[in-house]
Specification:
By secondary structure, this protein is an alpha+beta fold. It is built from seven helices and seven strands, in the order βββββαββαααααα. The protein has a five-stranded mixed beta barrel.
Length: 200
């Protein structure tokens, strides 16, 4: 049965969560090593066995930059992906090349800055909100504000900076974007300072 995100299967638990595929690489003859930003477990490294076989159903759901509901089993040294469903190929869904570039840069920052396995649902929600904003935004001139705001909030959540956009603004809404662009000089300075200080 499913209880609290855990499906008990025989003698081992299968953990159900949502995830973005932040990075992946081939491993062995048909496997992939995945870096997953999960809603419940933070940034995890997992093996998807046999996923590169043409007969594998997983390969359609778990691609670089996709978002999916997944099932994981915790092994001795690593996680193992056992199932995936309800996936979205986000890189193809985003409406413009620029939106896709912003999404890829954010994925790269998360991979670079998030260290260790620790539940970070706020970062998952931030990336999810950013993707939704990029999908829904009709004015491409707003992309800069969305990207600057997302990076600023990521750095705040990771403790690299002390302040972020005020809670009085709906994330990525019109007032939020206006605030970001009015203060973009100081925001970019703060972002660059924090990234330099991270030494990552």
């Amino acid at each position: 049965m499913v209880y609290g995100g855990i499906l008990f299967h025989m003698s081992y638990p299968v953990y159900i969560t949502e995830a973005f595929v932040v990075a992946c690489r081939d491993s062995g003859e048909a496997n992939k090593r995945l870096v997953l930003l999960t809603r419940d477990f933070g940034l995890v490294h997992a093996t998807a066995q046999g996923i590169r076989h043409l007969k594998s159903k997983l390969r359609f759901h778990v691609q670089h930059t996709s978002r999916a509901s997944i099932a994981l089993v915790r092994g001795k040294d690593t996680w193992r992906l056992t199932n995936a469903f309800q996936s979205d190929a986000l890189l193809h869904a985003l409406p413009t090349v620029r939106a896709r570039q912003i999404f890829m840069r954010m994925n790269g920052l998360i991979y670079r800055l998030v260290q260790g396995e620790e539940p970070m649902p706020e970062i998952f929600v931030l990336l999810d909100d950013m993707v939704t904003a990029l999908l829904e935004e009709k004015d491409t001139n707003a992309y800069d504000a969305i990207e600057y705001g997302a990076v600023l909030e990521l750095l705040f959540l990771l403790g690299y900076i002390e302040q972020t956009v005020g809670k009085e603004h709906v994330r990525f809404g019109v007032a939020y974007q206006t605030h970001i662009m009015q203060t973009r000089k100081s925001i970019l300075s703060e972002i660059n300072r924090a990234l330099s200080a991270s030494q990552l």
